[in-house]
Design goal:
Helix content is about 80%, strand content about 0%. It has 21 helices and no strands. The longest helix is centred in the C-terminal third of the chain and has 52 residues.
């Protein structure tokens, strides 16, 4: 009997031992796998366990991984928890480390997002000028959607924290607005004492958000700015706000503990110092100024070129008119002497014969082209060249073909050639 009891107890003991052993192995493997640690940290964050999530993220950082993208994401999550704990200075430092890792990874979009997050933290600390400079640098690094929407939100936030509420409304749009934009608009209208608008945006956002911090502000706005609400509704809103504030207080306590763990268990070896920020901003500003200079220079060159062409076109039109009105056109252009003909034509028609001969046209082709450019009819051209009008049409088509156009397009082609 004693032997059987011992045997029956042995099986559960063996199972427990095996389970413990497997758990230890799994734990060791997990601790050495930074990707698994990152995913576990994200899961813990989503489950509302910031302390455990921070501990796991720190393990991922200390795992020795050289995956720059992964490290950038880990630091972004850590910084986000610092932001939620209202420790904006620490959040800024940690976001700066994530930016460095994204930069090393060569991911310009993630790098620009990190810069935008840094700008938001500067805005929250009421450093509007620094925030706007970082925003400009982020736009320089990645001036395309989807970053541009976030950039507008951060500009609006910088204005909000600086108490420039009219500017908040300027930088946020009620059309296809994000939850954060609606929140900013509701708060801005509340501070501007436009109660109807504040209540409108609060009611619009309330059913579509579960963010505790948004809900706290929304209940406050509806309690104080919704003039159409009855007493029962106001009492209900006040009660709901009390519950939300209690949940926020508990969550804030956990987030504060997580940030303290971060500060005690991890010291960034590298981050954006103020001098580095100034350097990057100066570099970005220099590039923007140089780009503006080049763009302005090109614009001036295009304007000068356009004016030059307009002047040449005006001169050409005037000379064509004068030639058409010349009574003795044959003597004016010296038709029999081709050299004299070319010299006179080039003088009056912007070096047209020199340009035409560069196309490989023969003497007859050049004569035809000059007369077509002047705008003489087939009959007038035939009289000058002593041939029939029908042959002029054929010669004109053959010459146009050599210039790559049809007979009807020949005069337009010649005008462009003379102007250029």
């Amino acid at each position: 009997m004693h032997s059987s009891e011992k045997s029956s107890n042995f099986v559960p003991d063996l199972r427990n031992t095996m389970f413990t052993f497997l758990s230890i192995i799994l734990s060791v493997l997990l601790q050495s796998n930074p990707v698994a640690l990152y995913e576990e940290g994200k899961t813990l964050r989503e489950e509302g366990k910031p302390v455990e999530a921070m501990q796991v993220f720190i393990q991922a950082v200390q795992s020795g991984t050289d995956d720059e993208m992964l490290l950038g994401r880990v630091y972004s999550n850590m910084a986000n928890m610092c932001r939620q704990a209202n420790d904006h200075e620490t959040a800024f430092d940690v976001y700066s480390v994530s930016a460095l890792h994204f930069q090393k990874a060569g991911d310009s979009l993630s790098y620009a997002y990190a810069l935008n997050n840094m700008a938001w933290e500067q805005a929250a600390m009421v450093h509007k000028d620094s925030a706007l400079l970082l925003i400009d640098y982020a736009v320089h690094c990645y001036p395309l959607p989807p970053l541009t929407d976030k950039i507008m939100e951060t500009r609006a936030a910088a204005c909000f924290f600086a108490k420039e509420y009219d500017s908040v409304l300027y930088y946020t749009s009620p059309l296809n607005a994000s939850d954060y934009q609606l929140m900013l608009r509701a708060q801005a209208h509340s501070f501007l004492h436009t109660d109807d608008s504040a209540a409108y945006y609060a009611r619009l956002l309330l059913p579509r958000t579960t963010n505790l911090f948004y809900l706290d502000d929304l209940y406050y706005i509806l309690t104080h700015n919704d003039l159409s609400a009855d007493k029962e509704t106001l009492r209900s809103l006040s009660s709901q706000r009390a519950d939300v504030q209690k949940a926020i207080k508990e969550r804030h306590g956990e987030l504060t503990k997580a940030v303290e763990i971060l500060k005690q268990g991890w010291t960034p070896e590298e981050h954006f110092s103020p001098w580095m920020i100034i350097l990057f901003i100066a570099l970005g500003t220099g590039i923007l100024v140089w780009g503006a200079f080049i763009a302005n220079r090109q614009r001036l060159l295009r304007t000068e070129e356009k004016q030059f062409k307009q002047t040449r076109q005006l001169d050409l039109s005037q000379n064509i008119r004068l030639l058409r009105e010349t009574k003795d056109l044959r003597n004016e252009l010296a038709w029999d002497d081709f050299t004299a003909f070319c010299a006179q034509s080039d003088k009056r028609l912007n070096a047209i014969t020199t340009k035409l001969q560069a196309f490989g046209l023969n003497e007859q082709d050049v004569r035809i082209c000059v007369l077509v450019l002047i705008g003489l009819s087939h009959k007038e051209t035939a009289e000058i060249l002593n041939c029939s009008p029908k042959s002029i049409g054929k010669l004109k088509d053959l010459t146009a073909k050599k210039l790559g156009v049809s007979g009807g397009q020949l005069q337009e082609k010649l005008l462009k050639t003379a102007i250029l």
